[in-house]
Amino acid sequence: LHDDLLDAILADNAAVRFPTGCLELDSITGGGLPIGYTLFLGREKSGKSMVLSSIAAEALLRRQNVAVATLELEPRKQYERILANALALPISTVQTDGYVTKQRYEQIKDQLGQIRVARFSPDTPVAEITRWVERLSDLWGRVDLLVVDYADLVGSGKSARESDSY
Q: How far is CA 66 from CA 49, 92, 117, in A?
């Protein structure tokens, strides 16, 4: 082994990371999450949805196209959280101070990717979410990040009696 080889390995590993926008999380994960599937587990009210909002905002700031499938929160709440993260504003400001929010948004809007948030009912089959992502891919050319908030509520398309297929 030599220094150049080690540098190349470290660069390759860093290249396949997806920054989350949470500096502490990025520092302990080697620069972000691995590209692919990532599952966040935690107790109720532990901040999983807030981390997902931060990741979605970071992707938007990198001009990536983001699809957010929510099975609990209203789309407006998801947009507020993501917008607050992207604009580096407290969510209370986004919710109450349209002037400040609009000013900050105008400064960065041309640098953002695209985003769609859709609410799905619990037990929505995976195939329905997949079709939604495919439609967005047709519209945008690609979806770079899919966030499913409360993925444990996504159904298999089969009744619970047929199988344990969640």
A: 15, 23, 8
Residue (of 46, 47, 68) closest to 56 by Cα position: 68
What tens digit of pLDDT does each residue of 53-97 get?
999 999 999 999 999 999 888 999 999 999 999 999 999 999 999
CB contact set of 135 (below 8 Å; sequence gap of 6+): none
- Using an 8 Å Cβ cutoff, are 138 and 99 in contact? no
Phi, psi angles (nearest 5°) of residue 154: -70, 135
Strand partners, 119: 70
**CB distance 129 to 52 below 8 Å:** no
